[in-house]
């Protein structure tokens, strides 16, 4: 008995693929949105350059991206809302006219990077110290048990 | 004449001693049962008998009573179990046993059994060379009737005398009118009997293994005694036992003993009937009494011939009777086994002795050897048992009657003899077989246990157990009781207390436990199981329980040295508590408790159930805690990378969280800034 051939997945995928027109339509809409929010986009684009760089060079390290990105954003938000208050391209460009603003945005990302790398070392150090205290406490407890119950209490 | 015949005045204690009842005893005087004073400074060698030494005795209540004490030797042991009965027997022909008990000989410091007898003033009959009975058969028959009556009195208690000989026959009065038989309890049955007084089968056994026998053994000895009284001399005593045995086997006992002497026919027939070598045809006690008491009875003797047509030839010698064949086979078991294997014995039994049934029974018994391996020793022992059921069992150098097994073992232990023959004898199960071939002897109920006891190496078993279990006469011969004569468990603790000198390890040994098990019965089986556990604490607990029970039951109230001994031995019991502080507490408390000498206090201290339960519970908790802590420590020490990795992951997660929070805070603050 013959069996019917399975439907070809490629056709389905092709069906779900956007056509050229919708793509162009979406691109157009995006362009309009960018144009409409250009001051914010400028601030975000320039302010989030460290995060974007990280996204390009180490996209798989999600934790690193989160830490650096979030810190970077925290620094950029100050200027984003400043631009929202005085909404103009001129004002957006004015933000980057001050080097201190650039340093603040980049440093926030740098702080994130430092925290990402140093936090584990601090944690390991603290845990090690805690473990040693715990081992000393265990030794002292076992010594007391031996004193009361003899050496066999810990097995032979 | 010996010093026995000294006058009554001579043996009455001096007046200065009598006047005050509480007069202090001299160093050589020993009091028995608060009444009889045995003076070890005044031996009466003329009354020494059955290995015992005779000493003068003063009765503190009846001062005119003339007594002597027979101090039993340690060569054998007294027949302790029959003493109460002998004491109660008041027969005319028997020396009265007045009292008995254990005393310490002041010179040797040994404890021995002392038998207090009425003193025979006329001395021993054998010392009186005038021999009033010589050639007077009628007088001898009257005496025999009296002595038979005494033997019957003993027999009513199931006791045989087994020491009937001229040396043990006394004139009770100074006029030498009353003749009595002397002691029968100071040694093993028939141990000191000269060979002439013993039957052929008894002579075939080792002298310590002759056993109590039956009334027929006493009848035989009485006949020999009567014959010697008639002849006026004791003949044959200078010959060795094998010589006499040979002589009796060749000629028959009567002919061997009478020799060329002429004996009146009636008296001769009496003796013939009493001296028959086959026990089945010998008069027993009731028959002898009936005939001797009836003076008009006609006494005849019908010789029983059991000879075969053809001889059984062995080692060039010819044998015509089952008895002779059996004897020859016992003497040369290897040759005998070859002859049996060659079928010559079976052939002789069937064709010459005309006893086909016996031949079949022997074949069946020999083939039923447990492992079916040829064993000439066992096979010949079985064959001889069927040929002559009344013969003793012979294995190696041991030849014994089963009722003498315990005494024989006692003798072997005390004389440091080889015990291998006894082990084999018990393992072969020959004792049970011996009883099955007897027609008129019942086996003890415990006979089936012999093999098991002998095979067991456990404490409380072995040959020692057999020795004590099958004979109440055997005193304890454990090394721990040293030279003491211990005939009941009541004195054991007191002796152990006396004998402790800080050097002994265990307060018990196999011998002592076997003795106690045989005397105290099944109730100490649990204790014996614990003693065999090989767990020191359990062993210590068991012996402590046993001795505490014994002290509670038998006393004495204070046993400080034994208490100390048990405390030292109980260190393992103390160590069985887990709590070290409690162990030290117990050690300190024991020092206090030992001074009181009360074993139950030691037991209560060391075996406190509540303390034990608490200790175990707390110890289990402590162990669990320790195990948990160790596991935790091992985790922290042994696997660094894991916790480092965990810390790292946690740190990164923390960093992520911190970053998100800071971002949100920044967002919110700036949002508020915009809104305001």
Portion in beta strands of chain A: under 5%
Radius of gyration of chain A: 29 Å
First-last Cα distance of chain B: 152 Å
What oligomeric assembly is this protein in? heterodimer
Structural class of chain A: mainly alpha
> What is the average per-residue confidence, as pLDDT of chain A, rounded to a whole number?
84
Cα-atom Rg of chain B, whole angstroms?
Answer: 37 Å
Sequence of strands across the biggest β-sheet of chain B: 1-2-3-4-6-5
Show unreliable segments of chain B: 1-19
Overall 3D form of chain A: elongated
Q: CA-to-CA gap between the ends of chain A?
A: 73 Å
Number of distinct beta strands of chain A: 0
Compute the average pLDDT of chain B.
88
What does the main sheet of chain A amount to?
none
The largest sheet of chain B, given as strand count, sense and whether it forms a barrel, is:
6 strands, antiparallel
The domain tally of chain A reads 1
**Which range does the strand content of chain B fall in?**
5-15%
What's the total helix number of chain B? 30
What are the low-pLDDT stretches of chain A, counting only 5+ consecutive residues below 50?
Answer: 1-8
How are helices and strands ordered from N to C of chain A?
Answer: HHHHHHH
Summed up, what is this model?
The complex is a heterodimer of chains A (156) and B (676). Helices cover 82% and strands 0% of the residues of chain A.
Which key features would you list for this structure?
heterodimer; A: 156 residues; 7 helices; B: 676 residues; alpha+beta; 6-stranded antiparallel beta sheet; 3-stranded antiparallel beta sheet; elongated; disordered N terminus
